[in-house]
Structure formats: structure tokens, C-alpha cells
Amino acid sequence: MLKNIDPALNADVLHALRSMGHGDTLVVSDTNFPSDAIARQTRLGKLLRIDNVPAARAIRAILSVMPLDTPLQPSAGRMEIMGAPGEIPPVQREVQVEIDAAEGKSAPMYGIERFAFYEEAKNAYCVITTGETRFYGCFLFTKGVIPPDSI
Description:
By secondary structure, the protein is of the alpha/beta class. Helix content is 30%, strand content 17%. One of its GO terms (molecular function) is D-ribose pyranase activity.
């Protein structure tokens, strides 16, 4: 155990989050996503896991250490429901609450069509699969920066 580090974050996940640079993207997926196949095509090239927790809990842990990109560009995306792209299912509403809490303000997610999401995921730095069993629990995050204490 480490102080002030969410216990959901294992060593492999922490290493990946720390290794990512500004503008790198991260996929957080549900259990139905083709995580291993997609992860093999990412920069990291292997699947990471935060097992036994739902997506919102895993994302809370991730956002406790990873800054999102600036509001100048969308930094949090969600997989759209096929045939109902504007519909926001409960899993996505729960994740939105975690994003807003981490950012300290409203930071709405943008929608990504399902098959476009798969393609964008292949270009991500890595994929972290969670224990989320509900459909459409798949998200894409862009890493931001932490500014210096003084300029």
C-alpha cells in the first residue's frame, strides 16, 4: 500500500499513467469490449486491468492522479449507443459525475460512434479494462498537463 494513492491503481496502471505524455489517450473499457485485441495494437501493446470495480470507480481512481487535457479540446469521450447516439445510459452518467468531480466543474463528454471508437482505441497509449458489466461502459481520455507551481 502507498499513502494517498487509490488502492484500485495497481503498479502496472500507475506505470502506464505516469509514462503517458500530454495528448496521449487512454481507453477505459467494460468487460464486453475487445480489450485484449485492441490493447495489442496500442502504444503500450498489452492489456491493463482494474478488475472487480465498475467503470465509475476505476475512473475516479485514474482521475485522482491523471490530469485531463485543457478545455480547448474535448478530453473525455464516451462510446455512443448504436441507434441512439444522444442517449446517456446510467454507466455514462455515473462516469460523468466522476469527471465533473475531478475537474471541479462541468466537463461534458463527447460521443464517439461505436466503430469509430474501436479505431480511435487502437491509436491510444493503452487500454485499461474494468469489471464493468453494463453495456457502453467504454471511455476515451486525453491526458493533460500539470503546470509548474510558479511561472
